[in-house]
Amino acid sequence: MVLQSSLKNCLQLSCIFRTPKAGFRSTTSGGLIIQSVSNDVYENLAVEDWIHDHMNLENQQVLFLWRNSPAVVMGKQRQKNIKLARRKSGGGTVYHDLGNINLTFFTNRKKYERMENLKLVVKALKALRPQLDVHVTDRYDILLDRQYKISGTAAKLGRTTAYHHCTLLCNADKLVLSSILKSPYKGLKSNATPSVPASVKNLFEEDPSLTCEMLLDAIAEQYATQHQIDHHITLINPADEVLLPGINNRVKELQNWEWVYGKTPKFSISTCCNMVYKDSVLDVKVDMDIKHGRIEVCNIGLPEQWLPPALCSELVQSLTGSKFCPNETTTVATTLLRMLPQDDELHSRWNLLCENMMMLM
User: Which Pfam families is this protein grouped with (predicted)?
Assistant: First the structure.
């Protein structure tokens, strides 16, 4: 049963969350199943953050169901119209679209158990379609037919509360998923959590009668049964400041460059660009260290006769300290171009070098 976002939501949420500003009541035991009406990745991640910070303790259990329009979480944006977001849990890169369900299990820290959550999802799938061969691995993935990954997992453990979230591939665009998760970099070194490649398969491929709505309802029903709560899915609007005080500020924080890119773990790139100029190919060695999303060290090696060393040095100095992003590099290159002598040959070489630098980002 689905309840629309209304005063009833506030009454239900008041039993689960502590929000003095909204006048929510004190802790009572119980649970809640919530589904977002938004497909915006920043809004849905903000709701996760909000619930984590406002959950009452004791016996509360919350399941948050959500889907996103095309987005990459904790990864590199490589295609237009695909948003890039950073979540506050750990783990590698995840591709989201409307065919990929997201489940977030909230509880207090002592009762946190991701394996039980994943087993719950498997139970729901088997109740819906008994013929499905699905099981949970020691890596906390869910496999279909013993080889295809249909769910990845990550978690955030706070001092007193915790959440575990996972995905479930129903009918995602696998071509986009595959291309978006392939790193374009060569010679990249980082201490960031690596994404582990895996063969994936949509549940829709196994059973074309399955829909995201059916899967969401089956998981909600299993969750309600297991936690002995009413099987109600409460719809909420993540932009509702009355229901979720301060939520819009959280959304803005998640969209901010300093969060999305500035929190990136330190990494380095050491590569060689093969620049084609007229009838020749020029090898340009590029070494960069990036910290907090900004270029900390930059070295560009190319023949002196191809570009005056002073110009190359000027580019290196201007890039050092700048954001590691194409837009900022374009601004730097354009500014320096205005200072160059009126020489078409020189301008062509300069533009080619800068274009290749931007392709690294």
Answer: LplA-B_cat (PF21948)
